[in-house]
């Protein structure tokens, strides 16, 4: 893969920043004032007018700056060729369920994959006014200040986060056993309801490890770059290289990576473990 210059990455990062900030303003405007909340397909998979308006705004900004790039947007799907070297992965509102209930944990996430690898990302949480940015080789920041992952070394001293995909009622691979087991052997497992913020919380050192299955590229592309640039590690559950289309991610501060990976692989079926 041809390495893009720091200047090229910086330009893309600024475009991503403009997009998340403009969309974030829309999310702030609509919060608590929604007229329409629809179910998209699976029960509980919601879409609101805020998701749609925020996505239109992001698409407008990307088309203005980089009309030649491909886009994969949660509400509009694939735009342009999938084979494009540059692919923007957009989640206009990550944490829709929270947002629709008036629970203020949600964000806008805009990431750029270059030849399939996340290299640029911006995540904006309008409720805490936190802007997270990262680009390969350029570091990670929150509100323009450098950020770093935590120093927790032992799994039993760690605070983790996970999530449950919308297909959880249709599959036994629903993460329930892992959630219970890891709750039992660590200081706790949180469930924020916004994958992009789970990743930025790892990057900030607020949480030590995150795992989830059933994710889409728009949920994680931006957050992955931010975690890696903050000194964290992102792989598949078994520690092998991360594959974005698998929907499965293990992201940690690096120090607990192997022990969390082992615990996930060794999780006994629900109810079959002893303290
Ligand atoms: C969801 C959130 C949630 C995760 C789900 C995602 P949405 O995205 O990131 O934390 O557990 O798997 O689909 O629907 O709120 O954009
Ligand atoms: Ca999402
Ligand atoms: Ca979404």
Automatic annotation (TrEMBL):
InterPro entries: IMPase (IPR033942), Inositol_monoP_metal-BS (IPR020583), Inositol_monophosphatase-like (IPR000760), Inositol_monophosphatase_SuhB (IPR022337). It is an enzyme of class 3 (hydrolase). It holds the Pfam family Inositol_P. GO terms for biological process: inositol metabolic process; signal transduction. Its cofactor is Mg(2+). Its EC number is 3.1.3.25. GO terms for molecular function: inositol monophosphate 1-phosphatase activity; metal ion binding. CDD domains: IMPase. The keyword Membrane does not apply. It catalyses: a myo-inositol phosphate + H2O = myo-inositol + phosphate. Mg(2+) 1 binds at residues 74, 91, 94, 219. Keywords: Hydrolase, Magnesium, Metal-binding. Mg(2+) 2 binds at residue 93. Belongs to the inositol monophosphatase superfamily. This is Inositol-1-monophosphatase. It comes from Gomphosphaeria aponina SAG 52.96 = DSM 107014. The lineage of its organism: Bacteria, Bacillati, Cyanobacteriota, Cyanophyceae, Oscillatoriophycideae.
